[in-house]
């Protein structure tokens, strides 16, 4: 050991010996045993003077650790938001939807909401489960799917919400102002913790079946087997089978829990409320 270091280490050792103990206590902040020593200043203007210095308190270290953790969480939350914002294709009326803002009007809707809460609560990448929302137009299927996504964000999971017809338009056309490249989008959709494919089946027409863009969606589902997916559709099982074809339909049903949503069209209801004074829409 070099002489300066030896001197320093010996001095510290001497100064924190039993002879120099002023007091002992347990710190309320970190619950560590703290010993206060009378320590002599080696250098500076106060050289040679003694002052009490506590040893053993971990409060500052803990606070620093908490700060680092908080900062990390903030960065991850920002990344989750950016991932969702940059890659989701979703109608603006759904952006505010949450499980808390869903107001069930039927028993089945109440049950659907309970199932959504349970799904979000028990969501695990280790035990992935898919959901398929089925029901008529405007009953809140997409709303509930978005609500789950928001609940997952709070659990620090990431997710993307894609309205399938919008995805196909996006893939089929060459827009100059595309938010991200197709390659990047598809990669993100394959890897995200939870992917919502909203309105699946709505994009299919007879001619479209062989379309590369349609096959892209199923390439996606295929690549995500074993990773959680949420689908919504207002097609019947028969229609879905006919439109998707046997192989794709089979993938959609694999490890998937069905949630039925009944009720009246929320949008039509809203229209009727706003126009209650009108005699008739015709
Ligand atoms: N029970 C509800 N409580 C609050 N808002 C609702 C409810 N049901 C629907 N909405 C709202 O009504 C609009 C339509 O709902 P949503 O888009 O979820 O319907 P959908 O079942 O997905 O219909 P579609 O089959 O046409 O896609 C949304 O703005 C949604 O937020
Ligand atoms: Mg919908
Ligand atoms: Zn402490």
General description of the model:
By secondary structure, the chain is of the alpha/beta class. It has two domains: 3-57, no CATH class; 76-272, P-loop containing nucleotide triphosphate hydrolases (Rossmann fold). It is 45% helix and 17% strand. The protein has ten helices and eight strands. It has helices at 3-15, 59-87, 107-122, 141-154, 164-172, 182-191, 212-223, 237-244, 246-253, 266-274, and strands at 21-26, 33-40, 50-55, 130-135, 159-163, 194-198, 229-233, 256-261. Strands 5-6-7-4-8 form a five-stranded parallel beta sheet, with helices on both faces. A three-stranded antiparallel beta sheet has the order 1-2-3, with no helix packed on it. Helix 8 (237-244) crosses helix 9. The mean pLDDT is 87. The protein binds adenosine-5'-triphosphate (ATP), magnesium ion (MG) and zinc ion.
